[in-house]
Sequence to fold (323 residues):
Amino acid sequence: MSVGLFGGDDTTAIRDAAFPRPVRFLRKGKVKEVYEVSPTELEFVFTDQISVFDKVIPSLVPHKGETLCRTSAHWFRVAESAGIRTHFLDVVGGNRMRVRRVEVIPDYAKITPSSTNFLIPLEVIARYYVAGSLNDRLQKGKVRPEDVGFPEGHVPRYGEPLPEPFLEVTTKLEQVDRELSLDEALRISSLSREEYDELMESVLRIDERINRDVRSRGLLHVDGKKEFAFDEHRELIVVDTFGTADEDRFWDLAAYEEGRQVELSKEFVRQYYRQTGYHGRLMEAREKGLAEPDIPALPPDVLRQVSDLYVRLFEQISGQSFR
Fold:
């Protein structure tokens, strides 16, 4: 059985003044609600919620939902201008976006080499600098320097540019994302090797434009993730969202050239919880199979900083004024 993109089985119809017609609630993710507008169209509602480490923080970030929606729309339009097809249709409100609907097929066995109009159950992460979880894995020896293009024996430094883009693939539809080998990625998605290569080339094409555009606006694009689907003709389209403060990591270019990494993405929030010790307690609980500690709310001063960060990043990326 297949369900709508981010679909569920809640058949409750709702009507709200913000919506021009009745829509059916499908599901709520960590930060986004999804509604069915028609058999071929969905609406994303971006909330002000924020999550890190697979935990929803009990705080609302003012303006976050609208900045994510508008930033996503900016990159969808950029991708389409570069000849890369997407599921984006239009922004219909500050934090609401209409997209073409594709099907989600949770059972890998039901995806075949001839399946069409479905979400490819893979997430592609492209990395350009030593940062985040990649740095953690390099430090722990889980990833070797030569795996990411460095010569054998090289000791990578945090913030160091990678010799070449490092592409990783994880699951998309499982409860916890896990890294995949090439063989497993092909098996669960039923992609041919040619289709897989096309997907990877699309990621690099999009990021080439992102990297160039944001650098001209004083930013470095450090890493980011993408999701794809096949349309009714089994041609690739980019789906969900990308290039935002939630999906991607950005640094301030001027600070980087001075030897500092100033986080201008959700990584700012992750670093806050690392500094308070919460991340360490959470990781220890997960490694030991213990009950995970609840994530604390963000203090008011940090919340203001996070809100300002999302607004400022939208303006730098898009060249538009938020208000």
